[in-house]
Design a protein that fits this description.
The chain is mainly alpha-helical. The protein has 20 helices and 14 strands. It has a domain at 3-63 and 120-238: Alpha Horseshoe (Serine Threonine Protein Phosphatase 5, Tetratricopeptide repeat). The chain has helices at residues 39-42, 46-54, 88-93, 124-140, 149-174, 197-214, 240-254, 257-261, 275-293, 318-321, 395-400, 433-438, 515-529, 540-551, 563-566, 568-582, 589-595, 602-605, 618-623, 655-658, and strands at 3-4, 7-8, 16-17, 37-38, 78-79, 337-338, 353-355, 392-393, 439-440, 484-485, 507-508, 513-514, 606-614, 631-641.
Length: 670
């Protein structure tokens, strides 16, 4: 009989949880530590077993707060300043994918770092195996629990979901793995072979189908979900919608070009999907979206409605300052950050977030202010405090934000385009509304505080000087790309506005899945299989336009729905561009480029900046909207080019693991 220890749970339920100290495949086989209560006692009823299962929630990584200066964006959408060259984002750019085990990021615990970087839980690889053990323990010991049918199903639904989820998340980076679906006895020799990606995906799907069968849409509508004072506190628990979303995502990933065709160069297979997997994906997403569209769930899209009131200078800065309109019931911004320690993504964001974990180490929202809130703005003259690490959007990502009419920018941004309306002398005008929400650009009013709160010697930093040679183009302390990002952290996180002051209760969190992503994955699955699911009335174009309409951007193909962008590969290209924009900086770009077989292609391996000269006087920006500014010599300049080969389509497995037994093989090239 195994013994177990108890630890208070951190997710708001009244049960108890068990903390495992397991960090690898090998450790997975170790005996539990000496403890004070037997397994039979621990699993005797719903409250006890639910407490045990809830320990799994502590293992969900928090990408933004897993380290002092976190790094989670490894696609083509971000660069760091030189002082952060040791961070994972830059190491990926160098092709050093082995650094995932050394840099203190959300994939792996680094024992050499103290503080936030030294905390054990909340790292995917480090936490997955003890979490999988919990899943299997709960499933195998469910008969010990005395309880109702509903209580048993809630336990099983969570256990099957998380067994699938941890495998899926690891597969996204490492490819097919052994599928851990049983409890290993202490001393048992691990000889489970690595499955192919699609074989592993089939196992994930089988578990998710069970989770869908057992889990409710809303825990608050169950008896057990209201027991022990937990009613109204269930919004972080996984449910049927979460499981449906991941079932579709699992099928779409399994049907994607990389998983169908294998790693290769040339991009010739980028539109070659496995249509059968994609049809299954479309059906899963369609079932979910039908429930949403008919009002049968608690989920919805957050409103993108910002205050249009003009200030004394005649400029409406509501979109820049993320000030929602007085009539809006929810706010897109609050998907990513909120104040007064409120968990982002919930009611204030229309319940758009579908999959979230705890925030920070053991749910400590204040970890936002350790450094997450201070790594997005310029460090020039200390205008933003703390470590000299700056997340900067690449110009690649800026170019993905198309025009307000819904059309993309031309390939040659140095020339005007009469079709889209692009004008290189006014590069910030008439852009997709999300550009103004997400991006800090030249002339942007960065500091809102009154003059007395900003030292006179720093007044020159009130408005961003991001033109070539400007004060905020210092490579070491500002932006080498010409832009900052404020989608995830407000620009008011600076020494004068002090949005990161403890009293403000700033809380940042990036959801693992949100409803907008479901619409876009559904669109991709339909387009890939040339299919519209009978379970939902939406077409691929309809689904994308749901997201465009939400933010006020023009529809696919522009005002005339040009078939160039609404059919064939043109439609797929626009769906992919829409994913880049809607999910920008949230950490999904790498996996998208990877599975589309585009990670190694020249368009995506070069990271570049925008260079341009100012025409307007400094006084212009204090009296006018910066998007109306005229510039000269707008062009792009290479910052770096990533030297990727086919081996970079998968991360290397830890060498200590692949030497355990012959069947557990290293990924090719590593």
């Amino acid at each position: 009989m195994r013994n177990i220890i108890y630890h208070k749970i951190l997710i708001g339920a009244a049960g108890l949880s068990v903390l495992a100290s397991v960090a690898s495949c090998e450790d997975y086989l170790d005996k539990a530590p000496e403890t004070t209560i037997t397994q039979a006692e621990a699993f005797k009823d719903f409250r006890s077993l639910q407490g045990y299962v809830e320990g799994i929630y502590t293992a969900i990584p928090d990408k933004e707060k897993c380290n002092w200066c976190p790094s989670w964006n490894w696609g083509d959408d971000e660069v760091f300043n030189p002082e952060a060259d040791d961070r994972m984002t830059h190491q990926v750019d160098l092709g050093n994918f082995k650094a995932w085990q050394e840099t203190g990021n959300w994939l792996c615990y680094n024992p050499n770092q103290g503080g936030n970087g030294g905390y054990h839980f909340g790292r995917l690889w480090t936490s997955a195996f003890p979490a999988l053990r919990r899943c299997n323990m709960a499933i195998e010991n469910i008969d010990m629990m005395v309880g109702t049918k509903e209580e048993r199903e809630l336990i099983l639904g969570q256990a099957y979901f998380f067994r699938a989820w941890f495998h899926f998340e690891m597969m996204s980076y490492f490819g097919g793995l052994p599928y851990i679906n049983r409890v290993f006895d202490a001393g048992e020799e691990l000889r489970e072979k690595r499955l192919s990606y699609q074989e592993c995906a089939d196992c994930v799907a089988a578990d998710l189908l069970k989770a869908i069968e057992y889990l409710p849409i809303d825990w608050d509508q169950t008896v057990a979900g209201n027991a022990y004072g937990t009613g109204g506190k269930n919004d972080l628990r996984v449910n049927k919608i979460t499981a449906l979303g991941y079932l579709g995502k699992n099928y779409l990933w399994a049907g994607s070009p990389l998983m169908k065709n294998g790693a290769q160069l040339g991009g010739t297979k980028t539109y070659d999907y496995d249509k059968e997997y994609c049809k299954k994906a479309a059906d899963a997403f369609a079932e979910l979206l039908n429930l949403v569209e008919t009002g049968q769930t608690q989920y919805g899209l957050a409103e993108f409605d910002y205050d249009k009131t003009e200030g004394e200078d005649g400029v409406a800065r509501g979109i820049y300052d993320h000030t929602k309109s007085k009539t809006a019931k929810s706010c897109f911004t609050q998907l990513f950050y909120d104040f007064n320690w409120v968990m982002p993504g919930g009611d204030n964001a229309g319940r758009e977030a579908i999959m979230r974990g705890l925030s920070g180490e053991n749910g400590n929202a204040n970890n936002t202010n350790w450094n997450t809130s201070k790594v997005f703005g310029p460090k020039v003259a200390g205008i933003v405090e703390h470590d000299n690490v700056i997340h900067q959007p690449t110009a690649n990502m800026i170019d993905a934000y198309g025009m307000a009419n819904g059309l993309p920018l031309p390939d040659d941004i140095t020339k005007p385009d009469p079709v889209s309306g692009w004008d290189p002398t006014h590069p910030f005008k008439d852009r997709d509304p999300r550009f103004y929400h997400d991006i800090v650009f030249d002339g942007f009013k960065y500091v809102n505080a009154a003059a007395g709160k900003l030292e006179a010697s720093k007044e020159y930093l009130r408005y961003c000087s991001l033109y070539t040679g400007g004060a905020m183009r210092d490579q070491a302390h500002a932006s080498q790309t010409g832009y900052f990002c404020q989608k995830l952290v407000p620009h008011t996180c600076n020494i004068a506005d002090q949005a990161y002051d403890y009293g403000k209760g700033l809380h940042c969190y990036i959801p693992f899945m949100r409803l907008a992503d479901i619409y876009l994955m559904y669109a991709e699955a339909c387009a890939a299989a040339d299919y519209q699911s009978p379970k939902c009335e939406l077409s691929a174009v309809d689904a994308v336009n749901r997201i465009r309409t939400r933010c006020g951007a023009g529809p696919l193909g522009g005002p005339n729905a040009d078939a160039k962008y609404t059919t064939g590969t043109g439609l797929m290209d626009e769906i992919r561009r829409e994913r880049a924009v809607e999910l920008a900086f949230e950490g999904f770009r790498f996996s998208d480029l990877q599975r589309w077989l585009l990670l190694t292609e020249p368009k995506y391996t070069m990271k570049y900046s925008h260079e341009f000269d100012r025409v307007e006087s400094d006084d212009f920006y204090a009296k006018n909207d910066p998007k109306d500014a005229r510039v000269q010599n707008f062009r792009k300049k290479e910052i770096l080019t990533r030297k990727f080969t086919t081996k970079h389509y998968w991360f290397p497995l830890p060498e200590s693991q692949v030497y355990l037994y012959p069947e557990f093989k290293q990924n090719p090239g590593w």
